[in-house]
Amino acid sequence: MSTDHGQGLPPGARPAYGVAIGYAVLTVAALAWSLSGIEVSPERIMRGFGQAGHLLTMMFLQPDWSYVAKEDGLLEGLRQSVQIAALGTAIAAVLAIPFGVLAARNLYPLPIAPLIGKQLLNLIRTFPELLLAIAFIKGIGPGAFAGVLAIGIHSIGMMGKLYAERIETTDKGALESLRAAGASPLEVFVFGIVPEVLPDFLSFTLYRFDLNIRSATVLGIVGAGGIGEKLVFQQMSSNWHTIGVIVMGIIVTILLVDFISGKLRAKLA
Amino acid sequence: MSARTARPEVAETEIPRPPFPWQGWIAAVAVVGLLWWSSMPPPIGTGFNLREVVEGWPQMQVFFQRLFPTPDRPWPLDYLPQIVNRMTETLKIATAASIFGAVFALPFAMLAARNLAAGRIVYGFGRGLLNLIRTIPDLVLAALLASAFGIGPLPGVLALTIFTFGVVAKLLSDTIETVDPGPQEAITAAGGNRIQQALFAVFPQVAPDFVAYSLYAFEVNIRAAAFLGYVGAGGIGMILNRDVKFFNYGRVGLIITTIFVTVLIIDTVSTTIRRRLV
Predict the structure, then answer these.
(1) How far, in Å, CA of B122 to CA of B26, rounded?
(2) How far is Cα B155 from Cα B158, in angstroms, rounded to an integer?
(3) pTM
């Protein structure tokens, strides 16, 4: 590399070698720290890959298709996961509305309520979903019920934030003309904001449903119902031919929901 | 995020769409049907209803109260060193996986971007692989790898590396497709090959995004890494699982608080850096 690199260019266009070197040093240091204490040996890795090949063969080349329609089998688990995601998303879509209204800056003369609202939503979003699931399992017992509540509460964080941001970008002109015509704050909200934001709110809900389908397949690992529960159960008894069917079922379901949700969102936009 | 931040200007003369088209009614009926089906009693649905939530509420309250210390039931602080130890392992797993995943993602993202990929077949294959990887939930992957590689942090690192790779490569290849083609054309005109284009025309433009996506993956990885222990893949999840099972409420409260505070700190720092970058 030539040393006069970047000369004669404006300052912003000069490559920031100092910054790049700083990042590189920081990254290498972090990597060295993070790998300390992890037992890795070439033979463990090799053995692992060999074992993985063996398991993958059982899972995908000799899958036990009879598990698909079996009582308490794949379809049963997937059905539960989809239902958990649907109910959880619906709960969040409704409960997020008051939070979104609370956190939207353009609805209040002073930014006190929005500030509180935004912080509240941040806290909800940050609290890990699986911790909520564990808490609900302890409170009301294991099963799909706890999963619905965990997804329903956790999703409020992101949906409330998206709602609030969308309300904040509503057309100011329409709101002002409503106010000029003597509309009350409630009327301004119902006639000025709701019709404009509704398609986007539905779009956010569909997007969140996408994410929640993924969560609903994992929640079972801590005991909150769905296909994840069956996966853990089958793993305990090392039924790899069945696990292959479960993994394929999860992939197909997620791809299908992604596809449908994407199409619907494209229509709404 | 796909959220639109501003609406395009609408011409005055444009005819407004009907507020609720007929497709809307079909969709509404479908949604109500889906929710009704989902809340049917167990053999058909989840049996979810609000009455049970209300009835179960006191029990839930008792559980939450027990998590927090009172004068006669203080938190078992002598347990803290063990928690810190395990949380450190969780942090290490997430850090190693985020770095490895991001490093692998960088060259792959270039292969899976339309304006850099060597031909349609490479592009199609790259995109297909990324889409497939992203459909496998991180904890499912960890469960499978724990069976192959044996329990401990190693399968956790591998699972989250694959997850990070999928997320960062997807986001980065999308960004690469939107870069300014000028520098790339200049290098092509000067006789530069595809690798030189990638290094000197594309990478400088997407470097801040690359760091931002990697940090985002790190935020997600911390959360996942906290629960890897449930499937035998190391970290604080292992002791959480045990203490939840044995009803050690004080310990569970302490662990939950530790996880939450750690996630909160990392999210705040990472989001602040990301906002400055992009």
Answers:
(1) 41
(2) 5
(3) 0.86
